[in-house]
Amino acid sequence: MRIVVIGAGIGGLTTAALLVKAGYSVTVLEAQTYPGGCAGTFFHKGYRFDAGATLAGGFQPGGPHARLAQLLGLSYPTHPISDAGWVVHLPNRRIYQWTDPEQWQEEVQRHFPFSRAFWKLQRFLANQVWDLSSRNAPLPPQSFHEFISLLKALRPGTITTLPFLFSRVKDFFPSKWTPEFKAFVDAQLLISAQTTSEDASLLYGSAAMDLPRRGIHTVKGGMGTLSEVLVDWIRRNGSEVLFRQEAVRVETNKREVHRVITRKGDVFTCDALVANVTPWGWAKLLGDALPVSIKKDLLKTGRMWGAFVLHLGVEADRVNTPITHHQIIGTLDRPLGETNSVFLSLSPLDDPTRAPSGMRAVTISTHTEPLGWFSLSEEDYQKRKEQYTEQCLSLVEREFPGFRSAVRLCLAGSPRTYAYYTHRPWGMVGGFPQSSILQARGPQSGFHNAWLVGDSVFPGQSTAGVTLGATRVANLILQSL
After folding, report:
1. Cα end-to-end span (Å), the chain
2. Which of 145, 147, 286, 306 could form a disulfide with 415 if both were Cys (CB 3.0 to 4.6 A apart)?
3. pLDDT at 137 > cutoff 90
4. Is residue 119, in this structure, part of any structural domain at all?
5. 136 lies in which domain range?
6. 30: closest CA among 230, 237, 218?
């Protein structure tokens, strides 16, 4: 069997590794010179900057990364975060996302004493959803076999969540909720479910809000190390990962894909194909061969977010906090994103591989609507980048006085940047807003021997979510073969 994987992101590499583990030979094609995609790490002037994802969760016993490592017999160079996964900075308070459940309950009750029932329900639903995910339950099921697998994964506790299947997070807000409470919940949901409490699925949102208690780790060398470990494992077990091989066209024969053409003109014939791309990227690869079912699917599919990102080199002694992740909210009277909320990640103080001596690698990101960046003239584009840079730095300066003067290197990126380096149409990243588990997008490609993986395939958000989706796709392929 000739199996080809397009894209050496977490989704593509995880699927490839599981197929190699099952005894198949796999060829992975990657356009860039390094793996990881939107969870990769790039090198610049002595710094290792995370290209997109900066938060590594799912390493708890039974978590997606832990299960994959056990199955493949590999280890990641990670270290568990034992204090706060991150800090949420509201305009008038700081709330610590403690990894210890009891410490976390005390923290949230201290800030929002009226919310006890809300967090009790959230913890219960989160436990059920994470428990279901530990059994690789396929959601939403796309075949009779997957439907049977889902039924086998259910437990009595799972059944008790059914009344909440169509609920939104805000449906269960405390009756006396405050703007601070809503901003706090919305901030968490935006980074982990790509939407806020009005639209976020209660089941998915409950699990997403529990991420800090689910094995948050630091990764030596940056997030891209996770992909580098998988590349090494795949190669050591007899399969290929080829860099500078950008797939530009997928050729089909009736209901099957059968060849991948790269920009270099190389041809890779395949019996099965895995594409670590968004649905729009898949449409671009197929061109006129795109099935009608996928065309219709794209017409009704909502867009994903884009990101505006700053990669900074900062003097370490000016920002010496040991907590590596911070979410900062601007004002409570404006929507989140578009520089009114940023997620700041600092390289760990004990990881000298990330920055030159005396410096820290810092990433600041904010959600942004992607399409508007592509309609700007070059002059207006540069002005908008400067404006967003200034607003992001000002927000961080509010919480870390002196931060701005400690910056020695500043690289700004927009959805245009992501489109250029990741080849994602419109630079969309992070996955679809999770408003309903029943409407979640599966790995369907329109062809019976091809599957999509990555952040656009449920559950999608984070490297943990992408690993879950890739495990599901690997199982589907093994069943079909």
Report:
1. 9
2. 306
3. no
4. yes
5. 82-214
6. 230
Strands (E) across 101-255 are located at 217-219, 240-242, 247-253
At residue 357's C-alpha, the angle toward residues 352 and 361, to 5°, is 65
Say whether both 88 and 64 belong to one domain: no
Q: What is the dihedral of CA 189, 193, 194, 196, to 10 degrees?
A: -40
The angle formed by the CA atoms of residues 53, 58 and 60, to the nearest 5 degrees, is 145
Residue 144 has pLDDT above 90, yes or no: no
Task: For residue 351, give the CATH number of its domain.
Answer: 3.30.519
Characterize 65-95 residue by residue with b for buried, 16 or more Cβ atoms within 10 angstroms of its Cβ, and e for exposed: bbbbbeebeeebebeebeebbbbbbbeeeeb
What is the arithmetic mean of pLDDT over 81-96? 95
SS3 content of the chain, % helix, strand, coil (to 5): 40, 20, 35
C-alpha dist (Å) from residue 159 to 3, 128, 153, 162, 437: 38, 9, 11, 6, 15
Question: In the structure encoding, which two tokens stand for residue 147, read together?
Answer: 């439907």
Specify the DSSP element, H or E, that contains 106. Answer: helix 101-111
- Residue 336 CA to residue 196 CA, distance in Å, equals 9
Residue 111 and residue 99 in contact, taking contact as beta carbons nearer than 8 Å? no
Is residue 99 in a domain?
yes
Q: What angle do CA 93, 97, 101 make, to 5 degrees?
A: 130
Q: Which token pair is 4?
A: 């080809």
Pairing of β 450-452 and β 407-413? unpaired
pTM above 0.90, yes or no: yes
Is residue 200 located within the same domain as residue 266? no
pLDDT in tens, 399-452: 999 999 999 999 999 999 999 999 999 999 999 888 887 778 889 899 999 999
Q: Token pair of 239, please?
A: 């399969």
CATH label of the domain that carries residue 447: 3.50.50.60
Q: Which two tokens stand for residue 203?
A: 């089941």
Residue 294 φ/ψ, nearest 5 degrees: -75, -35
DSSP state of 9: B
CB count, 10 Å around CB of 266? 12
